[in-house]
């Protein structure tokens, strides 16, 4: 890669290495990604509703994405790609860490799912456009956030749907997601840098600047009785849809 | 190994087979493996037991389309009479006219016949009777069982449904709290001269409960009930060795003539009683249902109903997982099943266990206290309502499949 590419690089090398080391443990529901496994049904419930509303589909169908293409950016070891593939989509997963992609490929093969996993920078892979573009818990790890969001927008097909989730930058998220979660070992140390978190307003600005309109965000909260669940409280973590303006 | 299915159900009894059918109605495929021969299981006289099907369980049968076939064989329970050894102070659980019955009594044989017939018509069910499982394996991507003929069955989720001695549970190392009651239930059909008027009797004696469950009249018009008589293990052999006339006389003595003259019908069978409960009802790619998860005392007739609630809950969490694209072995899906069912079964079993122990204390003072307690329940509508709702199986968070 030449210098011109490095200037566009949106992923910090030390972050990619950090997650690569975790790749083997990704799929252990009790391992270091336990929080992500618990988060998965919650964000999938949001995505499912967004899919049904966006394409006016049958809410009982088990293949609501049949005939559609999906791109998951920052796919890790495929925790989101595999459900999207089961829902019928033709899925492409992109991740900066080669180890993640290797772990994802191995797991998808075991699951009997055909998913196209790519390792590298989204901008340099020449992937074309997709009906559904997702990027969960990624933007907070990215250096040039506008370039990242514009890159996602460029891969969204006309009439397509985008879904993003990320932690909010609030005192509550600093105390819980960074302080307490790392202290308790709920997430590995070095996972989150609070100052890099994006507020819902900032994310909307980034998306609008990329030529998209934004839906109403939902919060992902935690309570002792319900565990992680969708709510109207955006203080910790939130998930939002976008589509072309 | 090509026929990978969603569920590998080990045990095709009442609960396992209902699970296969309910899952199939939601598009979920299954292998069902059972040791027994269905022809023997459904032969006249093989299993004289009858089961109380609660309103919630009946809703499940409606939702899986077997209620119409079963309807002619059910005897509605209009009220439940609970007494302390026939002393004064009985509680009558009787619902209001518009509230419907407290449940229906069905011969187990009829339940099996209806389930086998429904399962035969389902392409999504692959049923292997008279088959032994040699080995079980639960891996990262699926589960397998090797059969005696070395066929390997493959699925996403393994379900232990073999009843209270579930080898699948034992092999998974899931331990059960185990109370051995040191009691045995004697079960036999009765014909009697007075009609039962659709009343189920729970008569508590210090030696153990004595239950009379109403059945439909015979074809010749004679009135029938099923008897569940609990005796101490040490007395069981003696009771079983009694000549029929003496056994009949002992039963009649405990019934105080509430159903008039009685005769025994069919063979007397004996089942050892034990109370078991696992706090854990799931493992990696494993769910337990029915008595494999909770074997319980049959006095309140809640064993099968609890198992059917397991079925409703498991099918519901699986349907939701399918809507979200999750694998059927997903740990979060199983965590939801675990959380949902563990509390409910513990509550029902705690109540049943407490009831048995409470009535097992001999002596006049305990008896007076029990009768006082029963009088209080009788006069306190909210308490009575709670007991009735429990008997119907409609309290707590009810799975969709068990709603009307």
Automatic annotation (TrEMBL), chain A:
The keyword Iron does not apply. GO terms for biological process: methylation. It comes from the Bacteria. InterPro entries: Fumarate_lyase_CS, SAM-dependent_MTases_sf, UbiG_MeTrfase. GO terms for molecular function: 2-polyprenyl-6-hydroxyphenol methylase activity; 3-demethylubiquinol 3-O-methyltransferase activity; lyase activity; polyprenyldihydroxybenzoate methyltransferase activity. Belongs to the methyltransferase superfamily. UbiG/COQ3 family. O-methyltransferase that catalyzes the 2 O-methylation steps in the ubiquinone biosynthetic pathway. This is Ubiquinone biosynthesis O-methyltransferase.
Automatic annotation (TrEMBL), chain B:
Pathway: Cofactor biosynthesis; ubiquinone biosynthesis. Its cofactor is FAD. Gene3D superfamilies: FAD/NAD(P)-binding domain (3.50.50.60). Residues 6-323 form the FAD-binding domain. GO terms for molecular function: FAD binding; monooxygenase activity; oxidoreductase activity, acting on paired donors, with incorporation or reduction of molecular oxygen. GO terms for biological process: ubiquinone biosynthetic process. The keyword Transit peptide does not apply. Pfam families: FAD_binding_3. Keywords: FAD, Flavoprotein, Monooxygenase, Oxidoreductase, Ubiquinone. GO terms for cellular component: ubiquinone biosynthesis complex. Coiled coil: none annotated. It comes from the Bacteria. Belongs to the UbiH/COQ6 family. NCBIfam families: Ubi-OHases. This is Ubiquinone biosynthesis protein UbiH.
């Amino acid at each position: 890669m030449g210098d011109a590419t490095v200037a566009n690089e949106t992923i910090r090398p030390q972050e990619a290495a950090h997650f690569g080391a975790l790749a083997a443990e990704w799929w252990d529901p009790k391992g270091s990604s336990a929080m992500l496994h618990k988060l998965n049904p919650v964000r999938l419930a949001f995505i499912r509703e967004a899919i049904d509303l966006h394409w006016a589909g049958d809410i009982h169908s088990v293949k609501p994405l049949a005939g559609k293409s999906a791109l998951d950016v920052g796919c890790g070891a495929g925790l989101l790609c595999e459900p999207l593939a089961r829902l019928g989509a033709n899925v492409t997963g992109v991740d900066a860490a080669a180890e993640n992609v290797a772990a994802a490929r191995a797991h998808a093969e075991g699951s009997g799912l055909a998913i196209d996993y790519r390792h590298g920078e989204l901008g340099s892979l020449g992937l074309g456009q997709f009906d559904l573009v997702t990027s969960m818990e990624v933007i907070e790890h990215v250096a040039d956030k506008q370039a990242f969001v514009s890159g996602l927008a460029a891969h969204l097909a006309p009439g397509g749907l985008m879904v993003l989730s990320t932690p909010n930058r609030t005192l509550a998220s600093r105390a819980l997601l960074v302080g307490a979660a790392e202290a308790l070992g709920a997430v590995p140390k070095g996972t989150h840098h609070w100052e890099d978190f994006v507020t819902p307003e900032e994310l909307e600005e980034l998306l609008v600047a990329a030529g998209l309109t934004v839906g109403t965000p939902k919060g992902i909260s935690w309570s002792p009785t319900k565990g992680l669940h969708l709510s109207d409280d955006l203080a910790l973590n939130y998930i939002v849809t976008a589509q072309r303006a | 190994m090509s026929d990978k299915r969603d569920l590998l159900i080990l045990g095709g009894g009442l609960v396992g087979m209902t699970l296969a059918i309910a899952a199939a109605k939601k598009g979920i495929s299954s292998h069902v493996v059972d040791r027994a021969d269905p022809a023997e299981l459904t032969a006249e006289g093989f299993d004289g037991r009858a089961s109380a099907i609660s309103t919630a369980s009946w809703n499940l049968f409606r939702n899986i389309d077997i209620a119409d076939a079963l309807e002619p064989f059910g005897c509605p329970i209009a009220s439940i009479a609970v007494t302390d050894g026939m002393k004064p102070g009985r509680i009558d659980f009787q619902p209001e006219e518009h509230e419907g019955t407290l449940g229906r009594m069905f011969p187990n044989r009829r339940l099996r016949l209806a389930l086998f017939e429904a399962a035969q018509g389902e392409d999504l069910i692959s049923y292997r009777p008279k088959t032994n499982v040699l080995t079980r394996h639960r891996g990262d991507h699926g589960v397998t069982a090797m059969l005696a003929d070395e066929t390997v069955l493959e699925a996403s989720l393994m379900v232990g449904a073999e009843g209270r001695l579930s080898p699948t549970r034992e092999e998974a190392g899931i331990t059960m709290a185990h109370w051995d009651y040191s009691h045995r239930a004697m079960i036999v059909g009765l014909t009697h001269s007075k009609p039962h008027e659709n009343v189920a009797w729970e008569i508590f004696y210090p030696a153990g409960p004595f239950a009379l469950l109403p059945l439909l009249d015979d074809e010749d018009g004679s009135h029938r009930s099923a008897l569940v008589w609990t005796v101490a293990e040490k007395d069981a052999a003696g009771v079983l060795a009694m000549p029929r006339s003496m056994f009949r006389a002992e039963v009649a003595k405990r019934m105080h003539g509430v159903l008039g003259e009685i005769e025994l019908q069919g063979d007397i069978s004996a089942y050892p009683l034990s109370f078991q409960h696992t706090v854990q009802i799931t493992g990696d790619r494993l769910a337990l249902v029915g008595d494999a998860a909770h074997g319980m005392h049959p006095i309140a007739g809640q064993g099968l109903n609890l198992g059917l609630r397991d079925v409703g809950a498991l099918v519901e969490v699986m349907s939701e997982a399918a809507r979200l694209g999750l694998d059927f072995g997903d740990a979060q899906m199983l965590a939801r099943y675990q959380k949902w069912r563990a509390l409910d079964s513990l509550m029902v079993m705690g109540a049943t266990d407490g009831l048995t122990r409470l009535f097992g204390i001999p002596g006049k003072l305990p008896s007076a206290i029990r009768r006082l307690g029963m009088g209080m329940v009788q006069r306190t509508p909210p308490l009575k309502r709670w007991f009735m709702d429990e008997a119907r199986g409609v309290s707590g968070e009810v799975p969709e499949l068990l709603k009307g």
